[in-house]
Amino acid sequence: MCGIMGVVAKRPVSQLLLDGLKKLEYRGYDSAGVATLVNGNIERRRAEGKLEKLGDLIKERPLPGTVGIGHTRWATHGKPSEQNAHPHATNLVALVHNGIIENYQELKQELEKEGYHFNSETDTETIAVLLTRSLEQQKTPEQAVAEALPRLKGAFSLAILFGHRDEMLIGVRRGSPLVVGYGQGEMYLGSDAIALASLTNKVTYLEDDDWVVLTPKGAQFYNRGKLVSRVVKQTAFSGELIGKGEFRHYMLKEIHEQPSVVGNLLKHYLQPQTRLPHFPSLAGQVDWNKIQRLNIVGCGTAYLSGMVAKYWFEKYAKIACNVDIGSEFRYREGCFIAGEATLGISQSGETIDTLGAIRYAKQQGQQTISLINVPESAMARESDVVVTTMAGPEIGVASTKAFTAQLTVLACLVIDAALKRHQLDVKTAQQLTAELLETPAILAQLLGKQDMIHKIAEKMTQAKDVLFLGRGVSYPLALEGALKFKELTYIHAEGYAAGEMKHGPIALIDDKVPVVVIAPNDYLLDKTLNNMEVVAARGGQVILISDRQGHERAKVGVHHRLEIPVNTHLINSPIIYALPMQMLAYQAAWLKGNDVDQPRNLAKSVTVE
Ligand code: G6P
Q: Which fold, 3-234?
């Protein structure tokens, strides 16, 4: 949700800013801009649309300067346009912003009364004008920032450039992430360490309410007016890890990474000798026997992995679960009982609604556990216990490897909980982990089935509506299949519990509606196939995804068949069946000529409510 870059150096910075913004484009891509100091004066280039447009503009009208800031936007206040694009500036100050200033209307009115004018519809411009007022009163940049911050409400991060101060930048963090990078005689600011990966792997993550003064020589950190020290960390990001490699898109690369991501996680979370789960971060912290009910919260795909986990936790560990969307959980004033814990699931660890849910659970006195992919994230810092999914950077806006990584770790957590609660014996637990250990090889086999998936996807591109059906653990997967399909192809898609079709959605079925039926060979197979036949009898174009036995049992009404090469188990079928869902959406979107990595209107890290 908006990417921020800043560089203070002794060499021209506009290309460095563009390169960094390219890596942050997953955070927003409706407009972009940069500002530098040219002979002490603030100069800007801004363009509506993708970063490429800004690059073209800078080629036409180069932007010199050795200090600068840049931004790639996902609009919140004010439509995507050049006028609303960041940086917002006066003649004294320019800034880029990620987040929301909740009280901007009030501040704007106050400043307008004093005669200040605004040129955009954004909340961001208020901060530029607020700083300008202090600078006009001869305050130093540091004093101006210190005065402005207590006036701002909301969660945000900022990079600020001051006129005639070509040796400094100021970065601010409240809620939204910001990273300082250390170069040779130059310093950087970025929304994440990935943006800085080609420049440095020495970074400092700002803490909440920190602000930092950067000069080419180093960084000074302040928190609530006091000078503070912050640790420098080494990141493991390399250009290779965050590039597309031989793949057409990040999403395709990330789909292909799944066998190794799942394999590495199993190596990490299963003991080599016993093949039983071990979670060092849970030891002495989480007592599964004391948990009376588990609230699982997340947004988007992460919420759906939580839905799968509910089936597993209740069946194997006998822990009652409530699964909630982050934005609902935090405001619905649910009834809690003693001994509840909340498990937040998030790839970024930044999604404001999931973070809000974790904070809310804490206020209710619950233990909070987070399952996240970015260990330096706000959720990791604010949760009592952290478990990581170690999937590496996920750049494609539609989540793929983060989902299967979440499912893999959740499956291991469930087995761990079931053992501790004496709901599973060691032998049965080992049978389950043996199934999990088969998963990476099955995923790799499935990656070889792309031709078949391509043919089916081609047919689906003609549809106006698509339905995805499943039962049990395949029901959340049907929701995930539909979510992936609609966000990438812009074709209406709905996921439904197969048994619920007859209560309404069956009215949608005709011979133009593709219906993807997810039918692993589990205790619900026959029931799912019966639901499928009801759809087929009404002309629905059934696409059956099942293993050989499933296909043999489904004699009639199937238009297209996608065979999973082996018989799966309840503990690994969601991980395995996720892959064809991702590929169907990917292929159909690509065939339609859509931007697969950056679908319209979306952003990856959603840091607004
Ligand atoms: C956005 C992304 C989704 C993601 C969701 C939650 O909507 O487009 O792919 O599932 O946010 O993100 P999180 O980082 O919390 O997993």
A: Glutamine Phosphoribosylpyrophosphate, subunit 1, domain 1 (3.60.20)
